[in-house]
Amino acid sequence: MHSAPVAPRPQPPQPLDLDAAIVDVVGRGAVKVPPYPAVAMKVDKLVKREDYGLDELTKLVASDQALAADALRCANSAFFSRGMPVTSLVQAITRIGGKEMARLAIASGLGAHARAPGPLASLKRRIWLDGLAGAALCQELARKRLLDVEEAFVCGLLHDFGRMIAVACVEEILAAHPGQRAMPLEYWLGVVDRYHVELGLVLAAKWDLPQMVSDVISLHHTDPQGAEEPRMVELVMAADEVVRMLGESISLTAEDLGAISLLSGPECELVSRVLDRLPAFIASFEGDAPAAAPGQSLVEAELPQEEGMAGPRPVDFPVEIVAGRDRRVYRAMGIATNNLMVNGPTPLPENVLLQVELRSDPPISCWASAKVSWPENGGHTVLLQPFALNGKAHESWKEILRKTVEPAG
Asked: Measured in whole angstroms, how far is the alpha carbon of residue 22 from the centre of its chain?
């Protein structure tokens, strides 16, 4: 008598080797690179003509709804604003200028990839914020160093865009291997940074970028001396250091920037002035702020290890936050050196620059990004980190901190 064959037990799925999967995608030449923004290519071609007209450029910009909206926001930001607000596209382009418009068209075209939804959306937005900040800083420093401003902006914007491609590659792999648990931000950054230079060079090859841009992509973490234009690589390296410090501190003075060996004293003064205008420029490319998507992110929420957020430094005042077209009121709960904890009706999208009004004593108007949101007390608690909080606003922030620890009277 023969017993019936025993069906094999289903094997548990093998843990995902993310590095091996990325290497496989790269090895097969299957990396998906976004196309060069079509409208940016057309704008660049147009403004290189000596005889182009404002009407031609306006019509071209107007053909791309996102670019037209970004141009209006940029023209009214502190980076370009001179006098009265502009209300028409013709006025915006006149204020910005043709060559500048060509640069902004690249940033506008790539912004859609940064705002795309996905389990690592907050990471993409952080990378994009850093990229826009780096591009603007490179542009301003290039003027000081007598380097080509247009080239500097593009190098600053694209030198780390391989990180964005890496995130998109990881998201595609994760879609084919469901069940991945959330991991800390540093884990995902580690994966992305291991491959971002290689993937950035894939982008450079697909787009047929100039050798100078390829050099900046490949050498900005190493030795610039092997580059076709080492001074451009050094410029990007200096801007990278400023961006890194911005992520760690809510305020940077010229003295703080003096720690960057690649910046001269006058350049530190220049950057400290530029920082006041930087948030509005970055926010110009946010479009309508994306809705937060709690429960979908694979970036594990982590509270910063900083004293003062629970108990010792409680505060209580209204905080008005502008997210896209929405204006929402939250309640401040606690303050620390680099963070403000608020509670309100809805979560906020992470790593998007938001306009924030603290109705505190003294009051503060600033830009900030949400780092973590979680449900609590029938609403949502959000940890906000101010961005480039310089000058009088930073002094007011420190005054609020002092009041939370000093006895009344």
From this structure: 24
SS3 call for 381: strand
CA distance readout (Å), 340 to 56, 353, 367, 382: 47, 14, 12, 8
Say if CB 405 and CB 337 are below 8 A apart: no
Alpha-carbon distance of 144 to 271, in angstroms, equals: 11
Give the whole-angstrom CA distance, residue 26 versus residue 49: 39
Task: Return the residue matching tokens 């290519």.
Answer: 41
Token code pair at residue 305: 């290890």
- Residue 211 sits at φ, ψ, to 5 deg, of -60, -35
Q: Indicate the pairing of strand 379-386 with strand 340-344.
A: antiparallel
Rounded-to-integer distance, Cα 67 and Cα 85, Å: 18
- What domains are there in the chain, each with its CATH number? 18-283 (1.10.3210.10), 305-405 (2.40.10.220)
> pTM of the full predicted structure?
0.89
Nearest to 247 by CA among 223, 266, 275, 228: 275
Sort strands 183-184 and 299-300 into parallel, antiparallel or unpaired: parallel
Rounded Cα distance, 217 and 159, in Å: 4
CB burial of residue 189 (10 Å; 0-12, 13-18, 19+): middle
Q: CA-CA distances (angstroms) from residue 297 to 15, 36, 131, 223, 270?
A: 19, 28, 22, 36, 38
Per-residue pLDDT of the chain (409 residues; tens, 9 = 90+): 555 555 555 544 456 899 999 999 999 999 999 999 999 999 999 998 878 999 999 999 999 999 999 999 999 888 887 778 889 999 999 999 998 999 999 999 998 888 888 999 999 999 999 999 999 999 999 999 999 999 999 999 999 999 999 999 999 999 998 888 889 999 999 999 999 999 999 999 999 999 999 999 999 999 888 899 999 999 999 999 999 999 999 999 999 999 999 999 999 999 999 999 999 999 888 766 555 554 478 988 776 655 444 444 899 999 999 987 789 999 999 999 999 999 999 889 899 999 999 999 999 999 999 998 888 888 999 999 999 998 899 999 999 999 887 555 4
